[in-house]
Amino acid sequence: xxxxxxxxxxVLKMLEEKKDYVSGQEICDELSLSRTAVWxxxxxxxxxxxxxxxxxxxxxKLISSPEILxxxxxxxxxxxxxxxxDIIYLSSTDSTNIQAKYYGENNHKNGTVVVTxxxxxxxxxxxxxxxxxxxxxxxxxxxxxxxxxxxASMITLIAAMAVARAVKETASLDTMIKxxxxxxxxxxxxxxILTESSTDLEYIQYVVVGIGINCNQTEFDDEIKAxxxxxxxxxxxxxxxxxxxxxVFEYFEKYYETFIQTEDMSKLHEQYNELLxxxxxxxKIIEKDNVRVMKAIGINDLGALIVENENGNREEIISxxxxxxxxxxxx
Length: 331
Ligand code: BTN
Known about the structure:
Elements: H1 2-18, H2 24-31, H3 35-47, E1 51-55, E2 59-64, H4 71-77, E3 87-90, H5 96-105, E4 113-116, E5 137-143, H6 154-171, E6 175-178, E7 182-185, E8 188-199, E9 204-213, H7 231-235, H8 241-262, H9 269-275, E10 282-287, E11 290-299, E12 305-308, E13 314-317, E14 323-326
Parallel strand pairs: 3-4
Antiparallel strand pairs: 1-2, 4-5, 5-9, 6-7, 7-8, 8-9, 10-11, 10-14, 11-12, 12-13
Bound molecules: biotin.
């Protein structure tokens, strides 16, 4: 049984590497198989979702591969130094943040990632739940940043930058950030980020950055329909989640290392502001029982949103204390 799985993988590798027709004879010779055995492997690959063309006298050609989110596929695309070198993949779980916190309590490796396809108890910001159906990507990154406790919240901004860039690059979708950390496409949210940490007064024990990206979801509940979307709904294409996550990790690692050098956004705020959808727009600043309209300028070195009133007076808005909305809707 094990041998058969390995042989099938080698047949697949041959098809992937050649990128053209591979003759049945070539596969037989390479793997010392009979024609019937080769044909059986091809049939099995097809039932796994691989599209393979067979032409008499030419052989087999891989046309397309199924979209798979798992540890092997992420690692295959991964180009990072330390992040996601340890991936804990769970086909379903309660919440990747809950799982990652457990690993944090047990001093698991810095950069460990917990990934799943669906969550049964997904958590959102402000105590809300995060509905997490299959088809999307939900993951949490475990970190031990040696920075002041009050600086940890900026890691969320970095995560939003990494997701926005990775989606742009892998799905060719124009993605931006709604301050502080919602990633949006065509005015709707495609990603939410919840950063949780274990700290004492002066010391960060660990940080867990939980990221949910709406990848291949096609339907949304009525309550969120107007403000939420998925990458596949916006592009009309299936998202290769493993490829996307590998890119998120690559960008995250880069931005995180820059952040750690200065313990602030001084070397990153320009790039963040380029992605900020609110920049230069009028926004509603919603405080407890007060709504004001101001113009958003961009974030400062500490990640606060600088806003300006009609007289040109500026002030800093701190994340967590207020909500920011567009004048006519979500952004
Ligand atoms: C938000 O409210 O916008 C934040 C949502 C964060 C959801 C992600 S999905 C992966 C990780 N695990 C969770 O339970 N929540 C975060």
